[in-house]
UniProtKB/TrEMBL annotation:
Biological or metabolic pathway of the protein: Pigment biosynthesis; anthocyanin biosynthesis
Catalytic reaction list: an anthocyanidin 3-O-beta-D-glucoside + UDP-alpha-D-glucose = an anthocyanidin 3,5-di-O-beta-D-glucoside + UDP + 2 H(+)
Name of the protein this chain belongs to: Glycosyltransferase
Record keywords: Glycosyltransferase, Signal, Transferase
The protein's Enzyme Commission number: 2.4.1.-
Family: Belongs to the UDP-glycosyltransferase family.
Organism the protein comes from: Genlisea aurea
Annotated PANTHER family: GLUCOSYL/GLUCURONOSYL TRANSFERASES, UDP-GLYCOSYLTRANSFERASE 74E1-RELATED
Broad class of enzyme this protein falls into: transferase
GO terms, molecular function: quercetin 3-O-glucosyltransferase activity; quercetin 7-O-glucosyltransferase activity; UDP-D-glucose:delphinidin 3-O-glucosyl-5-O-caffeoylglucoside -O-beta-D-glucosyltransferase activity
Amino acid sequence: MEKPKTPHILLLPYPATGHINPMLHFAKYLASKSIQITLIVPTQGAKSPALANLPPSISHAVIGDDSDQPTLFNEDKTVDLETHFKRFRSVYIPNLLEFIHRQGWGRNPDETAYPKAMVYDSTMPWLLEVAAEKGMKAAPFFTECCGVNALCYHLNKGNVTFPYEEEFPYRLPSLPALEAGDLLYLPDKVDKRGDIVRYLAAQFELLENADYILVNTFYHLEPEVLDWLEERYPKQRAIGPTFLLPGIDAETAAPQQESYSEWLDSKQPNSVIFVSFGTIVTFGGNQMEEVAHALLMSNRNFLWVVRNTEEVEKLPREIRESEAGLIVNWCHQSRVLSHPAVSCFMTHCGWNSTLEALSIGVPIVAMPRWTDQTANAKFIEDTWRVGVRLKRGWKSDEIFGRERIAKCIEEVVNGVELRKNCLKWKALAVEAVRRGGTSIDSVEEFVRELLLIT
Ligand SMILES: O=c1ccn([C@@H]2O[C@H](COP(=O)(O)OP(=O)(O)O[C@H]3O[C@H](CO)[C@@H](O)[C@H](O)[C@H]3O)[C@@H](O)[C@H]2O)c(=O)[nH]1
């Protein structure tokens, strides 16, 4: 008997865990619908823990980029980010075209094996042209929140100029009033010329030609800004939180790192401060020391993810030897957040971490560093009201002191209103991905319309 024909789709994340994770969750959901998936990761992302437990239903390829170049956010040298991004693109595109050619999927787009669509990270908008050249539908995937996307839209259309004009607050349609410290930026020592802001704004290049625009958020979290952007881009859909899509395993942790599970199990409900700063930012020794002392001052249990062993060694001895805490270099974050022992989450406010906390219902101590994190922290405190932020001044690389951090922890741990709000967002997030929910309906629509299957 002839095997049933399934459509094939390419997924192309940007090579960073915070970008691979949400797209991979989406890929797993599509794979569970018998859609054939090929996940293509540039070499810089090949070692991401997100890729540790790929299911056999997802084919996986690594394609050369410019990874012998300096790391993207290198604080020791001022990296010319514009050159970095240009080189990435100029190396990646020919390698991708050659990869597609080598697969023998054929040139005829009617062939079943030939990918019908390309879902690509929105920070690589130039992939739309590759999709068009290869006769595939183009679906950019945004890994940041819609409020941040709207900021990028205004930057791209010139409604907001960079360097920012000092007429704060900015009042932009569908967004709350924004102060300078709420906007996208990187400190001068990492990105003097604002290349990262331009790179993020460029997500809106060519966007009107996209067949679908996927955003990892959910409708009830950002209704005004989603509606506002949808008026301009009718094919925009909120499909998140992708880590909650049904039937997927959102596992990202290396299995040998599970000692923390037993440790968490041994703790009282609501007794542990969970601290994790994502996969890119580093805060530097002095800031880490202040965090360490704030945790000690809180007199509570803590579970702290410090990615790098050298960083752990630089922490004060009292924290390394403290019986109240555990320091690990990786964990299954969404599982930790779901543990009843966890009472609050100190985070750098990367969008995945923010969305995970919101959807699991854990209040936040927001300690943003840069890019979208400052805006996310603003929304966490003032829009969703699920946390307290350590507020940065404009372009400030100030070190937050231990007293200030400890005060935020106390406010969050004791915040009755915050906890109520958390439960509200949690319920709405879960509803979005349930049968008939806004996000799941959008995913099903995508599958039906773009891949032409029912
Ligand atoms: O021990 C850990 C640490 C992290 N994670 C996961 O790693 C992801 C981290 O993503 P995120 O919180 O978004 O942080 P970054 O890694 O910093 O993400 C980058 O990408 C995001 C999406 O574009 C942006 O919002 C951030 O600012 C940018 O730094 C999350 O899914 C976490 O659950 C784990 O599973 N275990």
